[in-house]
Amino acid sequence: GDYGFRVQLSLYLNRARGTSANPDNIIITNGAAQSFNLLCQLIPKDSYALVENPISCGILHTLKSNNVNVQPIELDEHGMITEELPSIPPKLIFTTPSHQFPTGVILPAKRRIELIKYAKYYDTYIVEDDYDSQFRFDGNPIQAMQYLDPERVIYVGTFSKTLMPALRIGYMILPKALFEQVRKAKYMNDIYS
User: N or C: which end of the chain has fewer CB within 10 A?
Assistant: First the structure.
């Protein structure tokens, strides 16, 4: 994506969502679906993705259409039950911590920290799907989990709810270790689209 646009986006995300973004770790995508498709390429055949149960049908469809093995993790009234994180780690953990879809629960700080500690220990990555954080009926927006550990959390967002879905503009804030691999995958994806 255009560098000037990524500069403005990083300023907005850092101020409005409390992320730790800079223009050099943002990739502009054709919506969240392309982001999730690109992330599927990070999951080897012998690994799997951990997903909240329930989760968006769109994410589940994307993972399955990319032949990604999926394992669900249960939720309670506070979101993902981090005590049930598996002993065999996934490559990616998909979560909607600021407003879980479809239940609407918010993952509390204690569980966010436990999830990040797990990701660090097992060298895995968390995909934070922040699909509607701009909308709050009351109170301040909930800070993005990506801020807690920018090297373990991949932040995915779009403008489909704030501007219009037809624009198909999304973005990812990526850890440095993954940026070049995902950038190359996006380049190849766009060439043949």
Answer: C
